[in-house]
Write a structure and sequence with these properties.
Keywords: Membrane, Transmembrane, Transmembrane helix
Protein name: YrhK-like protein
Low-confidence stretches: 205-213
Order of helices and strands: HHEEHHHH
Strand order of the largest sheet: 1-2
Strand content: under 5%
Largest sheet: 2 strands, antiparallel
């Protein structure tokens, strides 16, 4: 049995994952679900992110190429690889949140990988923007790929702000719970939009898919 990864498969994974993160952090919904319910939704959503990121990594093509006779790492692959690493860190963070009951556990198993995953998303998005710049596509608002890349960057920034707000203080509480949930909600909406706009695209070859989340 063979599975052929496609852009549509990737986009659906990110879209569903982002929707779950949005539901888990929406003020009127997360309150009704409670902490355990919201954390469960985040955990499930993180695995949709990981599955989609793996498809993106496969579609990004080979890791290396030859440039002027010298081996070089392809930016498309590196961006996808860093994003995939970030999703794995979110798997750890959201999974640990279901079981961590001590301040140390919250700090080392929940906040640390959450912050590291947010940094990975920022780096991946920055590489995608650099690829737009190199291709002279830094301002093409009519392009779905351009819209997706910039929405991903906005989502990554929002997730980074959320990570700051969720910093675990010495008494075991978040530095700013409202900022943490608000950043997650806004970031999830950005990721949802970035992926949803790609669902209408026909599947394309791997070399055209870099930087699309």
């Amino acid at each position: 049995m063979l599975i052929h990864p496609t852009l549509r498969m990737q986009s659906w994974g990110f879209t569903i994952g982002a929707l779950l993160f949005a539901l888990g952090s929406a003020p009127w919904i997360s309150t009704a679900m409670g902490t355990a319910g919201a954390n469960t939704v985040f955990f499930v959503g993180s695995w949709f992110f990981t599955a989609a990121a793996f498809v993106q990594l496969v579609l990004s093509g080979p890791a290396t190429t030859t440039d002027q006779g010298k081996p070089a790492i392809r930016a498309e692959w590196l961006s996808a690889a860093i994003q995939f690493l970030g999703t794995l860190l979110f798997n750890i963070s959201t999974g640990a949140a279901l079981h961590a009951h001590t301040v140390k556990g919250e700090e080392h198993l929940v906040w640390n990988p959450n912050a590291e995953g947010s940094v990975a998303f920022l780096l991946s998005s920055a590489l995608a923007i650099l690829m737009l710049l190199r291709a002279n596509q830094i301002w093409e608002p009519g392009s779905r790929d351009w819209q997706s890349v910039w929405l991903n960057m906005l989502g990554s920034i929002a997730f980074g702000i959320s990570a700051v707000g969720s910093f675990i203080t010495r008494d075991g509480t978040s530095l700013d719970a409202a900022v943490a949930m608000g950043g997650t909600f806004i970031g999830a909406l950005c990721f949802f939009a970035a992926s949803a706009i790609q669902l209408g695209e026909d599947d394309r070859p791997a070399e055209e898919l870099a930087g699309i989340g």
